[in-house]
């Protein structure tokens, strides 16, 4: 039998799972750093942005905002950093909730950096999915 060729509609797949673009924006003003991590989701079509405000290494404020793709396209400073799966994004979101509580009173630079690394997919060799 002929095996139908797969078309992915210009989407990237990782081990058969659909991946979504992840963007980052970091800017510093008046001694505080505002770091934003955003994911572009297909259904519903929107951008989910996780915003961290960091002062002297301590996470002072954390919140999530949702925008339409059109609103997001008008924002400056965002750059594509990777693509990730929804399961990795869920791990990121859960870890973020834990870190936001843990880091209210102490410096958490390495924890925040490690959390972002969760989003990067390790290229698997064929047959290891």
Automatic annotation (TrEMBL):
Family matches, as Pfam families: CHRDL_1_2_C (PF19548)
Q: Among the entry's GO cellular component annotations, what is one?
A: extracellular space
Could you tell me where this protein is found in the cell? Secreted
| Chief place of localization | secreted
What GO MF terms are annotated? BMP binding
UniProt keyword terms in alphabetical order: Developmental protein, Glycoprotein, Repeat, Secreted, Signal
Specify the Chordin-like protein 1/2 C-terminal domain's residue ranges: 10-129
Entry superkingdom: Eukaryota
Q: What is this protein called?
A: CRDL1 protein
What is the native source organism of this protein? Melospiza melodia
> What lineage is this protein's organism placed in?
Eukaryota, Metazoa, Chordata, Craniata, Vertebrata
